[in-house]
């Protein structure tokens, strides 16, 4: 090899070394920048959650996703149920779609209203609920052993659903007025007339054999006491009293007692009252991780009783699998996070009480329904919010969520954020997510 060739070879080797060294240094820098990048992303997500309108958009997004999923599942479950009963296959689904459309309008209107209008509606809504419950006892039909419905203009209405919302608004307004007048210094002023109001509504509901709604009224009552800051001794005493009353209501009615004993003995081979629990578990188990596919459920064809209503979570689990059920639970968790965030951040007492009570009611109802399908709680007959078929439940739940959205607009900085975003809702959402830059 000549000297010229050796020189050219050394030159080419020397030019390769810096490149390889630079690539190694770049790889080291990229590796070193992984942790800061992760911290930066976490900081961005935290700043997103700390924004004034986080609760507002979180409730809106979770509600729309649960509503869409509910409509699809109701279509699947109710079609098979109606065909099994020899009825028009799409009647339940059509009613649910109309209810969802009306509910979206009501939720949008409620989200625009100031909290003082909700306070003004508290007493009229409570009176209307009491009259509706009395009307049910007088002329309502008995379906599945319970009197819950009354027909108005050919539409089945369930006044007990409206009673829950009425009790929230009335109780929140009552306690807010008492706190303003400094009348919450002793237990008697705290419980009167809130406790008699609960007894009145619960008695009318229980005369119609609706234990599930009675339990939810008790949850609302305890949530109001908790949010207002009731002393721990009194709160524990009320919790024990309510548990004792619920137990007595179960024991005095043979068919309720049989349902509880069936729940406790569901692992027994000769359990005769566990059919619904057993079939619901089979439906959930057959879904596996990813489900059998939307509309492909087999259990909806007469195997799971009340599949479009009380046990729709079993059909959802069969068609969407464990992944789908976890997504549903996560969406309810998002509503819980947003509702409690609103209750913590709003400035006035009424908004704080109403937000806390609505959140506890909706989440408790979801947990009771899901727990019954999973077999960890007794069957109470309460629907799964936003998913189960049922016009009254859907409208009341969406109204309550619209009230939560209106209360979220009272959070510190929310009004300024809405004013700065402008009137366009899509552009407001894009700016809130950081996808559009504001002009300088």
Characterise this structure:
With 440 residues, this protein is mainly α. It has one domain. It has helices spanning 3-32, 34-49, 54-84, 91-112, 115-139, 159-180, 187-191, 194-207, 211-228, 232-251, 254-264, 275-286, 312-345, 349-374, 391-408, 414-421, 425-432; strands at 150-152, 155-157. Strands 1-2 form a two-stranded antiparallel ribbon. Helix 3 (54-84) runs antiparallel to helix 13 (312-345), helix 3 runs antiparallel to helix 15 (391-408) and helix 5 crosses helix 6 (159-180). The chain is globular, with a radius of gyration of 28 Å. The termini are far apart.
Oligomer type: single chain
Count every helix, treating DSSP H or I runs of 4 or more residues as helices.
17
Counting structural domains, the number is 1
Strand content: under 5%
As a percent range, the share of helical residues equals over 70%
The beta-strand count equals 2
Shape: globular
Q: Give the structural class.
A: mainly alpha
Q: Compute the gyration radius: what is it?
A: 28 Å
Q: Which stretches are low in confidence, meaning pLDDT under 50 for 5 or more residues running?
A: 1-33
Largest sheet: spatial strand order: 1-2
* Topology order in helix (H) and strand (E) letters: HHHHHEEHHHHHHHHHHHH
Which sheet architecture does the biggest sheet show? 2 strands, antiparallel
Q: End-to-end span in angstroms? A: 67 Å
Whole-number mean pLDDT: 85
